[in-house]
């Protein structure tokens, strides 16, 4: 199963996203802070197929920063942001070829966003 | 859950569409005529995230007209049409950036169509 | 239910793909060789809405050839390839407007790929 | 040279559009009313590769109607609209897969719009 | 003529870009620093239809920052970046729905990039 | 100036394409057979930014084969085909993410096709 790195600090949303991913056939690894996510990305580069991140996070690093780090590590890394109030900042703070899911969103929106990003990525042997 | 306005006058298709939406994590509000749909759109503008409409409807207003009204109320409103015989008229009677689902279609096609339209919409705070 | 022609010679993958399609509301007809698939496409042209094919197949005809035959029979036929090692050859051996799913992939990726190809196809009465 | 049917009733804009098309390597046939345009499309179906139409026209038929007629005659006909005040109505009155050029626009915008529509069209022998 | 704001501090590239824009029917206003560009965008919001910016600029503000400011002022503002060495940073530092032109690029690439961004923008009356 | 490799064996079309490219700011290197084109691609890999090829060529290698070779050498190489009678074969014989220009086409169509392919390519430092 393709593994997706999820960055979310609220237990309720962690379950919502992990369940949605599982129903679509993905495996979710959940990091509860941006700092943890970047550590995982650096340590296990190549293990994760995409990043799904909330914007507002407990630590010093918000979701915009996590995504930038992910793209510096792997320039074409698929990125999906989730946010309520911060969704309107996506056009100035998001990275190219990413998707912003405005809360509330349906699990089908998350799965379609991920699938489109993964299916458009260049296949490599 | 994001709420989708469904316009369909046949009970069997109402269930098919409502079940598909529910499985994808959407809530469905079903109007059984185009006139009812436009009344709901005018009364609760902002409550619905997208319109899913059949073309042939019992009243005087067909699905093409419902979609035009919806776009006059909200210029970028996501629209999905469903039809059998009338699907071929989409290129002359549909609105820009809409999707036509030719019957028979699978629930996954409806969910992907909706998710793509919602995910591409400009996020607003 | 829309019928999808699946070309796969391994029992495990046949089940994986057929289950995924069924969960999305599609019906799967499985051919276990490229030769069988082409025979079915020629005999029942118009019955299948899309082709999902593995690349490495037991017979003399690989998935690249099956897809080319399908497009010669019906020029806009929706094509989804599945492969591991051969995924990197898609840019030189695939047909235009097709999708390559790199193994391992999630069922949601297959459903989104198919739905996008079917939803973008020109509707015909 | 590919021939483009232009519908425009103002001499100044007729020249502007015809010059832009000519510079891009297209031939322009100019109709000064929607009625004339539809007559030409019916009489010489297959001769024109695309329609470029203003919205406000002198006769009873506006640009929205001309485009609908063109699509009824040829379902995938490439359409480019040009307008000032009426541009905002495109999302409710335009046809799918068309382009609206908001005045004032540059010749490069017209040429790119036409080229994209023609290049994406299915090639036929 | 649609007016494009160009941010470039080298005289040779200023001419190259201004000439290309002029040939495509655009008017170019050239700012020679990021700070000047932001001042112009704030003072004359609505006058410019798009931003074309180099990445390496003389002042403290590079092209990435200029684009972010432009998007904060107008959330859907069309952005085209031009760069040599910094082009590879676009996937982590660029804004969504922007275009990066890798030097050397042809005038036709600049015109097509701008035209696509302008033609896809929502028309407003 | 970005250099484009053109494969064309008719003098008249060589001039037409070379002039169009030059007007758009590209430099054209013309090979008069598919065999010559592949030799140039192998010898000077990285010098050419895109391939523009006719389908019917004098030697044993047609344009379909040249494009496949180009993609084997460089997996994402931008490809534009030009053809009259063979244009309808593009959906079965073309490579993914390529463009088919049906003759007769306008120079603006060639420039837009190339610019779109080059602008969408991943920038590399």
From TrEMBL, chains A, B, C, D, E, F:
<dbReference type="InterPro" id="IPR050595">
    <property type="entry name" value="Bact_response_regulator"/>
</dbReference>
<feature type="modified residue" description="4-aspartylphosphate">
    <location>
        <position position="54"/>
    </location>
</feature>
<protein>
    <submittedName>
        <fullName>Two-component response regulator</fullName>
    </submittedName>
</protein>
<keyword id="KW-0597">Phosphoprotein</keyword>
<dbReference type="InterPro" id="IPR001789">
    <property type="entry name" value="Sig_transdc_resp-reg_receiver"/>
</dbReference>
<feature type="domain" description="Response regulatory">
    <location>
        <begin position="3"/>
        <end position="118"/>
    </location>
</feature>
<dbReference type="InterPro" id="IPR011006">
    <property type="entry name" value="CheY-like_superfamily"/>
</dbReference>
<dbReference type="GO" id="GO:0000160">
    <property type="term" value="P:phosphorelay signal transduction system"/>
</dbReference>
<dbReference type="Pfam" id="PF00072">
    <property type="entry name" value="Response_reg"/>
</dbReference>
């Amino acid at each position: 199963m393709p593994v997706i790195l999820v960055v979310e600090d609220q237990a309720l949303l962690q379950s919502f996203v992990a369940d949605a991913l599982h129903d679509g056939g993905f495996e979710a690894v959940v990091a509860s802070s941006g700092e943890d996510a970047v550590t995982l990305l650096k340590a296990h580069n190549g293990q994760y197929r995409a990043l799904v991140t909330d914007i507002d996070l407990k630590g010093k690093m918000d979701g915009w920063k996590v995504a930038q780090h992910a793209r510096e590590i792997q320039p074409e890394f698929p990125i999906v942001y989730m946010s309520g109030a911060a969704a309107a900042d996506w056009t100035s703070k998001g990275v190219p070829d990413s998707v912003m899911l405005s809360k509330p969103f349906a699990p089908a929106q998350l799965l379609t966003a991920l699938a489109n990003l993964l299916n458009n990525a260049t296949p490599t042997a």
